[in-house]
Design a protein that fits this description.
The chain has 2 domains: about 210 residues, DHBP synthase, CATH 3.90.870.10; about 110 residues, Threonylcarbamoyl-AMP synthase, C-terminal domain (Rossmann fold, 3-Layer(aba) Sandwich), CATH 3.40.50. It is about 30% helix and about 20% strand. The chain contains 11 helices and 16 strands. A hairpin with a 4-residue loop joins β2 and β3. It binds threonylcarbamoyladenylate and magnesium ion. Magnesium ion (MG) binds next to loops.
Length: about 350
């Protein structure tokens, strides 16, 4: 299969290109497109065979369910069996945007989308290219992140191409995605609304609307039988290099990372560090490969650049990565979640 690429300006969308992409979706094909979080790999969510193509292209196991994307919150009754009051409230606050709601599955949604389950994950993305595509297709679009299973999520069209060239029909290139981490997945089928995956809408912002919200805190380990949200597998989003996450106060964190990095270097490893911009001086002149994801105080920038920074470390052919934590507040929780998974549980907590 040849993979075509159309470039689009999100501020001035070429309707003819969107119409051609929508036609590919309606014909059962696979189209990667930018959302505000990461690039998605889309197919007609109402057609089981189209959806099966997504799993094949990604090498994704069939037991990992997909998110259904809508152009408008008003379309929600088309894909879910029931729209609770809470869903309306959350939609009014956060849609379009990076919040995914888990609700009872509507009869129109084939079981292939939900991995056979009776719930369906739904969101309305805010990216103009995503909304134009869904609207023009006239059907809800099922889309996981547009990467091979277990790899880093793509935040640029070239990342999609690197993973999926020859496996999908079309990539809509709308430039880098502004949020950079995936949507927050919130279950509304649990007794208390529960965050299954921290993401682009922070826990604090949900708490301001919900009063109570639980956080599924223990990622289940791969191979565990009952998986609440399969995306919570503890190893996921992995770069090629072995990654260790360092947590703790900056005064203790940076010296601990320096010592560990220099020891690894002495053992002959090519060592990469994922840091905040303010940390670079501390490591200057050492035989280490340094990459900053953004300023410590601006987690929106860190989130936006997180996956591209990990990819840059892979491209620099490091074989180990030491990454610093950015705290649990705001987007820090999603950043920590992705780095913890990339670390496959290798987390070092440095005492003050
Ligand atoms: O930002 C995003 O959410 C991106 C863009 C493309 O929309 N999509 C994305 O999809 O990250 P994916 O497939 O990589 O991750 C979807 C997550 C997985 O953790 C999956 O297990 C969970 O949502 N999920 C999907 N359906 C579910 C359901 N019915 N119940 C619980 N978790 C579900
Ligand atoms: Mg994914």
């Amino acid at each position: 299969m040849q993979t075509a690429m159309f470039s689009l300006d999100p501020q001035a969308i070429d309707a003819a290109l969107i119409a051609r992409a929508a036609e590919v979706v309606r014909a059962g094909g696979l189209v990667a497109f930018p959302t505000e979080t990461v690039y998605g790999l889309g197919a007609n969510a109402l057609d089981a065979q189209s959806v099966a193509g997504i799993f094949a292209a990604k090498d994704r196991p069939a037991h990992d369910p997909l998110i259904v994307h809508l152009a408008d919150a008003a379309d929600l009754p088309r894909v879910v069996a029931d729209v609770p009051e809470l869903a309306r409230t959350l939609a009014a606050h956060f849609w379009p945007g990076p919040l995914t709601l888990v609700l009872p599955r509507g009869a129109q949604i084939p079981p292939e989308v939900t991995a056979g389950g009776e719930t369906v994950a739904v969101r309305v993305p805010s990216h103009p290219v995503a909304r134009a595509l869904i609207r023009a297709a006239g059907v809800p679009i099922a889309a996981p992140s547009a990467n091979r299973f277990g790899r880093l999520s793509p935040t640029r069209a070239e990342d999609v191409l690197a993973d999926l060239e020859g496996r999908i029909d079309l990539i809509l290139n709308g430039g880098p995605t502004p949020v950079g981490v995936e949507s927050t997945v919130l279950s509304l089928v649990t007794a208390v609304p529960t965050i299954l995956r921290p993401g682009g809408v922070s826990r604090e912002r949900l708490q301001a609307v919900l009063k109570t919200v639980d956080l599924l805190s223990k990622p289940v380990s791969p191979g565990t039988e009952r998986v609440v949200s399969p995306g919570m597998l503890s190893q996921h989003y992995a770069p090629q290099a072995a990654l260790t996450l360092y947590q703790g106060p900056a005064e203790a964190l940076l010296p601990a990372m320096r010592e560990a990095a220099l020891n690894l270097r002495a053992e002959g490893h090519r060592v990469g560090l994922l840091l905040a911009e303010e940390d670079l001086d501390f490591f200057a002149g050492l035989p280490l490969i340094l990459r900053a994801a953004g300023p410590r105080q601006d987690l929106a920038v860190v989130a936006r650049q997180l996956f591209a920074t990990l990819r840059a470390l892979d491209a620099a052919a490091v074989d180990v990565i030491l990454a610093r934590d950015f705290g649990p507040a705001g987007l820090g929780l999603a950043i920590r979640d992705r780095l913890t998974r990339a670390a496959g549980g290798h987390v070092v907590t440095v005492a003050p």
